[in-house]
Every structure is written in structure tokens, then in C-alpha cells.
């Protein structure tokens, strides 16, 4: 079925590209709740990609992973984050270490870097999902950048979750899913990490009257 | 053996859930000690089997135990039991003082058991993926233990720890994905593609390019947990804020488990990639940590941070040992992990005692511990001397082994394959060896001076007004005495099983 597989490959690439696009949207967005919405959208694209890969390769366990992504990252975590934001007194990222245009430029550079790093190992992958590994690495790097460039605990958490999405895309697209036990464990860890970070945000708000992590400067040399 | 392994895993799990429903403090401690005793018994049984038969897998290939993982289990057992005894007096006193509400005590124990469980799973797991899950679980279990006092500083330290370690660990997961990616082309059964037992036999056929990338990601990721410079910034804050038994576990065990995770992947990588690649990177990070920590030791005025930087220093030394490699370097590195775990947990027990008496972490405000708390002062001096690697202690032996390996072999060169062709940096010629050995010695002297100068200042003199003199014997002193005995004893005489374990573990890591 060469036709089906080439269309499939293009579709997977399209979905991965959409994931990358939402990353840029998150970097460009100042409103906290919109960032969370964008993260939910990105996770929805991830579910789509995973389902596509599962259908095209016939790997049943990717369906399970896709369903879990849908429940945890599209529904539960965004809801928890929204609740946290409702409690906060600030709804927008006021001061950013890197402004939006510069941030977008840096992210463009990160995408090029990711493709440069992944170039030598891309030919090893199956035809279906060749470029997704580079895109996954790009998403991980952009997530990392978001965590560094933003001040609010909530946006840092979103950055962390974006990183996880990139990792999951890499695992699904490049390797057709990790062994099921590992994937279940990763989901469990991500969910707990998000909940714990949520609890922290509340406590930071109570203790510092702010969720600006630049207030966290008591401890230093 | 299956039953023993199941017991090893179920004991902390069961103890954790029991702790959630139990209210009485005495019962909580009893559960903790019982679970610790079970773990140690299971570990002894496993050690006997491993020494007799070599490695084995069980539970449908999920668990893999060889001399290396058994050695790590041994460290978990020793430091874990020491902590459990110490907690008996420490936690009760905190509750009596009102620092911890009695209702939060069971949360503490629950998290402690989960932490222990995650570390045991990370050690015995066959799959590199399961190991990753367990190491991330240690982060999640310990972040609230670090922030347990709920002061602003503790919250800050806990948040930093959670974020930095989670990010680092995410990078390690990317490395695990890459490792899996490389194995898919070689292994027929993909569902076992992350198992060490499956990867090792075919390791020389894995794609070297993917493996190099995977190793870099995993080294940076788990290196964050080990506290290697420059990913160490969370460590001094966390060690300063966490309750003493928790720090003892973080410094004594968690760092060792994270280092073990790096070594496991390195074993696979070394088969396909020239030895110099992984060894060079390890030695590079090791030197960065050692030198940086040596300087920070000099400027510390807070004794908990002092010990934290000393942890970074010693993990750096161990990494240099693993990086240099060879039988001597690897043996020295593993032995150093053990010595550091014993000495550092003891140092933090002493620090916890001093903090409870003097109510300050400033070195300048603490004087005359010898008069106020003679037992603690002895413990502080012994651990301080051991951490400065002075001759009667085993840490001296392991440091000399590493230094000898470094001076005779040098650091393996790192090869960069770029578009321009091959660039080779060689640090194994004579000049390089002498230079590196000198850097090692200078840093060792700096940290020796920094550590010992502060400690003697704390121990001697007269205690400030209002500090109660004299020390009441508690169960918390038992682990201090046992650890001190081990620290002195191991340098004179290493018990046969431990020595065999160490030698075999080193043999596993050295690729002929």
C-alpha cells in the first residue's frame, strides 16, 4: 500500500507540525488561561498523531496511550490548572525575561538546532515517522526555553508539560511507542508531577503572596 | 529468589500505606523499623545468591540483579536503617517541640516509604524505562519531604528541586527514547527493547551515533539528580531546608542511585562507542564538580550548605574514577560511593543534632559542641575527617585509588566528529596526566582545608550562653556509632562479602 503509507506519513508529519505550531503560540501568549488552553489543544493534536500512528502501524497499545493522553492531558490537567489560575490574583504574565518577538526568534533557532542534532539519526527511522523525531526534540527544547523565560509558576509548569508532550511525540512517532509498562509509568509520573506543582503554586501564593518565581531568592550564596 | 524480591518490593509499599492509616507515633516507628528490617534481610539473601550464582532475572524479566545492583541495594539498606533509627528520636522531638503537627507525621512516613520503594525499584529494574519512572518517582516523593517545614525558604527549596529535577529527568527520558530507537533495529521483540539483559548481548550492534546522543541526554538528566556541576544549583538549597533524616537519605542514597542509572546506560554505550566517549564526559563533569565545590567549600558560613557542597565534591571524585575507568578507577569510584554515603549520612545526623540544640545553621554562631554535645561532636569530627579523606578512613583509600588511576592512565580523550573531520583531544599523554593529577590534588587540599577548618571551629571553644550542656543517650545515637565503626573499620578490614561484591561490580563495569 505505497499510496496509503505516503499519505499516512504526510498526515503524521502534518500533525507533528501542528504540535510544533502550538508551541510557538504558547511562547507568544501572555494570558495564563490562554496558555493552558493552547496546551490542551496541543495535547489534542498529540492524541490525533498517536491515533494515526496506531492505525497506520497496527500497534494496539498506542491506542491505550492515546486514550490516556486524552484523559490526562486534554481534560484533567488543564482543569486543575484553570482552577489554580482562578485562585491567583494575576492573570497575565506581566514581566518576561525575554520579550515575545525575541522569544519567537529564539524558538525558531531551537527548531533549526533540533533538526541539526537529529539529522544524522533520522535515516534510521521508519519511513512513516521520519521527521517526527526532530520535531519532538524541537518541542522539548521550546518547552525548556519556556520554563527559563517565564516567571509565573503556572507558565513554568505549562513549559514542563510541553516538554513531556514532545517526549511523548518522540516515543510514539519515532519508536511506535515504548513498552506499555514504561508508558503507563510515565503517565502516572506526569500526572502526579502536575498535581504536586499545582499544590506548590497554591502554597507559594499563600506564603509569598505571589507566584512569581523571581521572588524565590531567599536561598543563595 | 522471586519471593525474596517480592518481599523486598512489598515491604516499603505495605509500610507506606499502613503509615497512612496509623495515628500513633510509636506504631509508625515500629512499622518503619520492621519494614527496614525486612528489606535488609531480603538484601542479605539476595547478596548471598548473587555471590553464589552471579546475576539473575525474575518476575518475567522485570527484575535484574547482578553484583552492581546488589552493591547499590547494600548502600540503600545501610543508610536506610541508620536513618530509621535516627528518625526515632529526631521526629519525636520535633513533634514534642511543636515543629510538626502530630497529624502530619504519617504523611512524612508515607512519603519516606515511597521514596525508599522508588529507589529500590530503580535499582532492581531490568528495563531502563522502568528505572526512569522510578527515579522520577523519587523526585515526586521527596519534594514535599524537602518542603516539610513549610517555611518560605523550604517552599522555595522544594519548588526549585521539583522543577530542576523534573526538567533534568525529562531530558533523560529523551535519552531513554533514543536508546529504545536504536534497539528497535537490532532486537526482534520490541517489548523487551529497553531491558538491560536484552540490550547487553547486542550492544555492539546498536547504532553508535544514536547511542552517543542518548548518553549525553541521560548524563545531563540523571547528572542533575546526582548534583553534578553545572546542574547542581538545587542541591545546597534542598540540603539546607530538608529535615536531617531526609537529607541523609538524599545525600547517602539518592545520589548513588542516580549515579548507578548513569553507569547502567554507560555499560551499554561502551560496547558500541569507543570507551573514551562516555569516560571523557564523565571525567569532565567530575572535574567540574570537584573543582567548583572545592572553592565553594571555602566560602561557606552555613554548615548544612558546607556538607551539601562536600557532596557535590565527592560525587565529582567518584565520577572522575568512573571516567578514568580501568579496574582501579572503577573500583575506587564504587568504593568512594560507599564511603561517601556512610560519612555524609553521619555528618547530616550530627548536623541535625547540632541544629536542634543551637537553633542556627550559621557556623559562626556554633561553638563548643564538644562541651554541649560530646557524642555529636565526636560524630561530627569523625565524619569531617572521613569527608576530608584523611588516612585512617576508607575515603582516603578510595581517593588514592582514583588518583593513582588518574595519574597512570589519564582521562580518555574525547573525539568530536564534526563536518570538518575528526578532532581528538588527548588528555592521556604525560603532561595531561600530571596536570590533571595536580588539579585533583589542589582541589583535594582546598576542600580538606575548607571543611576541617570550619568543623574544628564548631567543635572547640565554649558554647554560647543559654545552650544546655550534656547529651542524653537516645536511639538516634546508635546509627552514629555504627556508621563511625564502619567508616573506621572499612579502611582496616573490608568484610569478605562486601569486597567480593565491589570487585565483581567493578568487573561488570570494566569492558575488556
Your description of this structure?
The complex is a heterodimer of chains A (about 220) and B (about 500). Chain A is mostly helical and about 220 residues long. Chain A is built from seven helices and no strands. In chain A, α1 runs antiparallel to α2, α2 (about 30-55) runs parallel beside α6 (about 155-175) and α6 packs antiparallel against α7. Chain B has a domain at about 275-510. Chain B has helices at about 1-20, 25-55, 65-95, 105-125, 130-145, 150-185, 195-200, 210-225, 235-240, 245-270, 275-300, 305-325, 325-360, 370, 375-385, 395-410, 430-460, 475-490, 495-510; strands at about 55-60, 65, 410-420, 420-425. In chain B, the strands form two sheets. In chain B, strands 1-2 form a two-stranded antiparallel ribbon. In chain B, strands 3-4 form a two-stranded antiparallel sheet. In chain B, a hairpin with a 2-residue loop joins β3 (about 410-420) and β4 (about 420-425). The longest helix of chain B has about 35 residues, at about 150-185. Residues about 415-425 of chain B have low confidence and may be disordered. The chains are: A mainly alpha (about 220), B mainly alpha (about 500).
Amino acid at each position: 500500500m505505497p499510496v496509503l503509507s505516503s499519505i499516512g506519513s504526510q498526515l503524521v508529519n502534518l500533525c507533528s507540525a501542528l504540535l510544533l505550531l502550538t508551541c510557538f503560540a504558547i511562547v507568544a501568549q501572555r494570558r495564563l488561561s490562554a496558555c493552558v488552553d493552547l496546551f490542551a489543544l496541543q495535547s489534542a493534536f498529540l492524541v490525533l498523531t498517536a491515533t494515526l500512528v496506531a492505525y497506520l502501524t497496527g500497534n494496539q497499545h498506542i491506542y491505550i496511550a492515546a486514550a490516556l493522553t486524552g484523559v490526562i492531558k486534554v481534560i484533567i490537567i488543564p482543569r486543575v490548572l484553570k482552577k489554580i489560575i482562578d485562585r491567583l490574583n494575576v492573570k497575565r504574565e506581566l514581566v518576561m525575561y525575554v520579550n515575545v518577538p525575541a522569544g519567537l526568534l529564539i524558538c525558531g533557532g531551537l527548531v533549526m538546532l533540533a533538526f541539526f542534532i537529529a539529522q544524522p539519526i533520522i535515516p534510521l527511522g521508519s519511513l512513516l515517522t521520519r521527521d517526527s523525531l526532530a520535531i519532538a526534540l524541537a518541542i522539548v527544547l521550546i518547552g525548556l526555553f519556556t520554563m527559563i523565560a517565564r516567571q509565573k509558576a503556572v507558565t513554568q509548569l505549562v513549559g514542563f508539560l510541553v516538554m513531556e508532550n514532545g517526549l511523548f511525540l518522540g516515543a510514539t512517532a519515532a519508536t511506535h511507542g515504548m513498552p506499555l509498562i514504561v508508558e503507563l509509568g510515565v503517565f502516572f509520573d506526569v500526572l502526579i508531577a502536575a498535581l504536586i506543582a499545582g499544590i506548590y503554586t497554591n502554597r507559594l501564593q499563600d506564603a509569598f503572596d505571589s507566584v512569581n518565581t523571581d521572588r524565590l531568592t531567599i536561598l543563595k550564596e | 529468589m522471586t519471593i525474596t524480591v517480592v518481599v523486598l518490593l512489598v515491604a516499603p509499599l505495605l509500610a507506606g500505606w499502613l503509615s497512612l492509616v496509623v495515628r500513633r507515633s510509636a506504631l509508625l516507628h515500629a512499622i518503619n523499623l520492621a519494614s527496614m528490617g525486612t528489606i535488609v534481610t531480603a538484601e542479605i539473601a539476595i547478596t548471598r545468591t548473587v555471590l553464589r550464582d552471579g546475576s539473575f532475572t525474575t518476575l518475567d524479566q522485570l527484575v535484574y540483579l547482578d553484583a552492581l545492583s546488589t552493591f547499590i541495594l547494600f548502600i540503600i539498606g545501610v543508610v536506610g536503617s541508620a536513618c530509621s533509627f535516627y528518625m526515632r528520636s529526631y521526629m519525636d522531638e520535633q513533634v514534642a517541640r511543636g515543629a510538626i503537627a502530630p497529624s502530619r507525621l504519617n504523611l512524612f512516613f508515607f512519603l519516606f516509604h515511597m521514596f525508599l520503594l522508588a529507589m529500590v525499584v530503580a535499582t532492581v529494574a531490568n528495563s531502563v524505562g522502568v528505572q526512569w519512572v522510578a527515579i522520577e518517582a523519587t523526585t515526586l516523593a521527596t519534594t514535599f519531604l524537602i518542603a516539610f517545614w513549610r517555611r518560605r525558604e523550604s517552599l522555595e527549596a522544594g519548588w526549585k528541586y521539583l522543577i530542576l529535577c523534573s526538567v533534568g529527568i525529562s531530558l533523560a527520558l529523551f535519552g531513554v527514547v533514543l536508546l529504545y530507537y536504536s534497539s528497535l533495529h537490532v532486537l526482534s521483540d520490541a517489548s523487551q527493547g529497553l531491558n538491560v539483559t536484552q540490550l547487553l548481548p547486542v550492544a555492539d550492534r546498536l547504532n553508535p551515533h544514536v547511542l552517543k546522543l542518548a548518553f549525553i541526554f541521560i548524563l545531563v538528566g540523571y547528572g542533575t539528580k546526582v548534583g553534578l556541576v553545572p546542574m547542581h544549583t538545587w542541591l545546597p538549597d534542598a540540603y539546607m531546608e530538608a529535615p536531617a533524616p531526609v537529607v541523609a537519605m538524599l545525600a547517602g542514597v539518592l545520589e548513588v542511585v542516580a549515579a548507578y542509572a548513569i553507569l547502567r546506560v554507560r555499560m551499554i554505550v561502551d560496547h558500541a562507542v569507543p570507551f573514551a566517549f562516555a569516560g571523557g564526559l564523565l571525567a569532565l563533569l567530575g572535574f567540574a564538580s570537584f573543582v567548583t565545590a572545592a572553592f565553594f567549600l571555602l566560602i561557606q558560613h552555613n554548615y548544612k550548605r558546607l556538607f551539601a557542597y562536600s557532596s557535590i565534591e565527592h560525587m565529582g571524585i567518584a565520577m572522575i574514577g568512573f571516567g578514568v575507568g580501568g579496574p582501579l578507577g572503577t573500583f575506587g569510584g564504587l568504593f568512594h560511593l560507599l564511603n561517601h554515603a556512610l560519612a555524609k549520612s553521619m555528618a547530616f545526623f550530627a548536623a541535625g543534632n547540632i541544629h536542634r540544640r543551637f537553633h542556627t545553621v550559621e557556623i559562626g554562631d556554633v561553638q563548643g559542641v564538644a562541651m554541649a554535645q560530646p557524642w555529636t561532636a565526636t560524630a561530627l569530627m569523625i565524619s569531617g575527617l572521613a569527608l576530608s579523606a584523611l588516612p585512617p578512613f576508607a575515603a582516603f583509600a578510595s581517593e588514592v585509588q582514583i588518583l593513582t588511576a588518574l595519574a597512570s592512565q589519564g582521562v580518555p580523550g574525547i573525539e568530536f566528529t564534526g563536518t570538518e573531520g575528526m578532532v581528538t583531544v588527548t588528555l592521556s599523554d604525560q603532561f595531561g596526566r600530571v596536570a590533571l593529577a595536580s588539579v585533583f590534588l589542589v582541589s583535594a587540599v582546598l576542600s580538606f582545608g575548607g571543611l576541617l577548618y570550619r568543623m574544628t571551629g564548631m567543635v572547640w571553644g565554649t558554647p554560647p550562653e543559654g545552650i544546655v550542656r550534656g547529651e542524653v543517650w537516645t536511639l538516634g545515637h546508635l546509627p552514629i556509632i555504627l556508621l563511625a565503626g564502619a567508616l573506621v573499620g572499612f579502611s582496616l578490614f573490608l568484610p569478605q562479602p562486601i569486597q567480593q561484591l565491589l570487585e565483581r561490580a567493578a568487573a561488570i563495569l570494566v569492558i575488556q
